[in-house]
């Protein structure tokens, strides 16, 4: 089984050189940008969860690829973005969407 990190806001010390997730702007009242910075050219699954733990987005992205998500106007509050690479390394970070 691979490494899993369910902390928010940082990468576990055992995985810092393998994977990073950037989210901006944070907080936002519009689009949210995501970018992975991986040392290897890997495919990732990007998952977004709302504060209640409901999965609201699953998409595939590649290392160093920027993905822009446009939330619905009703989607405000705190969210968790999680990326999982082909080697099952996981990084989670939180972000906030304020009223449009």
Key features?
100 residues; mainly beta; Immunoglobulin-like; four-stranded antiparallel beta sheet; three-stranded antiparallel beta sheet; 0% helix; disordered N terminus
Brief account:
With 100 residues, the chain is an all-beta fold. Helices cover 0% and strands 46% of the residues. Strands 4-3-6-7 form a four-stranded antiparallel β-sheet, with no helix packed on it. Strands 1-2-5 form a three-stranded antiparallel β-sheet, with no helix packed on it.
How would you sum up the global shape? globular
Mean pLDDT: 82
Please tell me the total number of domains.
1
Strand arrangement within the widest β-sheet reads 4-3-6-7
What would your notes on this structure say?
The protein is an all-beta fold and 100 residues long. It has one domain (21-97): Immunoglobulin-like (Sandwich), CATH 2.60.40. The protein contains no helices and seven strands. It starts with 20 loop residues before the first strand and ends with a strand.
Mind sketching the topology for me?
Layout lengths: L20 E4 L7 E5 L6 E8 L4 E8 L3 E4 L7 E9 L4 E8 L3
Antiparallel strand pairs: 1-2, 2-5, 3-4, 3-6, 6-7
């Amino acid at each position: 089984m691979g490494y899993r990190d369910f902390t928010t806001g940082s990468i576990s010390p055992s995985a810092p050189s393998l994977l990073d997730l950037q989210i901006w702007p944070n907080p936002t009242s519009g689009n949210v940008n995501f970018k992975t910075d991986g040392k290897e050219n890997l495919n990732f699954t990007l998952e977004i969860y709302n504060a209640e733990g409901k999965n609201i987005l699953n998409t595939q992205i590649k290392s160093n690829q920027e993905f822009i998500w446009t939330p619905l106007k009703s989607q405000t509050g705190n969210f968790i973005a999680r990326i999982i690479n082909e080697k099952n390394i996981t990084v989670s970070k939180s972000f906030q969407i304020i009223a449009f």
